[in-house]
# Entry
Amino acid sequence: MRPRPGGDAHGSGSEPPRKRSRRAIWISATLALVLLLGGGGFAAWKLEWFSGNGESVSFGKDQASGKGSGDGGGAQGAAKPSGDPDVQMPTGPKAEFKQTAKLDDGTIVAKTTLVGAKSGFTGDVWVWAPKQYDDPKYAKSGFPVLIALPGGEGYPTNYWADRSLGLHKAISEGVQAGTSLPYVVIMPVLNPDTKYYYDGSDIPGQPKMGTWMAEDVPNFAKANFRTYKSRDGWAFMGSSSGAFVGMKTVLQHPDKFKAVIASGGEIVPDSPLWKGHQAEMDANNPEKLAKKLIDSNGPEVYINFQIGTKEGGKDRMVKFQQQYGKGPVKTTIRDIQNGEHNGWHYVRGMKEGSLEWISKVLKAPKPEAG
# Structure
């Protein structure tokens, strides 16, 4: 198939060869780090990064018992919703999470396997919750959800779950600086295999990746975390092909999602699997979706493009902004100086302003007084 222009957002500059897996890339990076740190340094690094990996994790605390209550089933937890009717307590059923990474502040990235009730697709999902999620002051509050999508193959892993990219740290530092909300980050696989890009869509005859992304993944978040019922607490971020899927999903479902950070993103669907299905492809084209939203004066959506000054593709963003950045479709473009087509530089762009931008249009958790 034709790779998306600009390469994989975990690489730099061009699409890496398909035969070289992301696992191999990370193994190479790890070995390089071992050589840099030396044996003793590596032992300390391994203890910090990987201690507890594979162990069961439960997000959220039953403040009365001190036990984890990330399973939802609101009736069994001591905390009840605040006076805000928009707060959605976890609905269950409980997912079984296993730790995959630990951050310096003690927060955990964990993985589970989600069986999509609506799509019929089964895939892995990684999650991260900020420190505030376990703070007793927030026990009755909802939290905004940021669904983070990778570029490239986006299967069988989601590279945003790797702590080395710094996404979760950037959010934590932003919370401390007052420039970011404390997001619950949900990181699903993007595609069902490594053969094609599925454009995050329900392509006829193929796995229903549009339903997976727009329904199963959010329902999973609602089952396991305190969230918001309204779209004010729901957003996407993505890089490269993941940016396309995030933007497309927000425009397609403005009643469910409010904003997206689209980094180095593509604008139109380009999976070869659309052949013979023009009408369905048009229904998943952000340009046509934006026009439809403008014509119907639909709810406002917010698209923040990010683009490195050392990568191509800004012309497509500018064209989209000129043609469709009007009425309810709010767009902005952030240049990342000396930025290339990779996740590290996109996180830098988020720290430099995109996190603050998206945080201003989404709903913040509300702590109890006292």
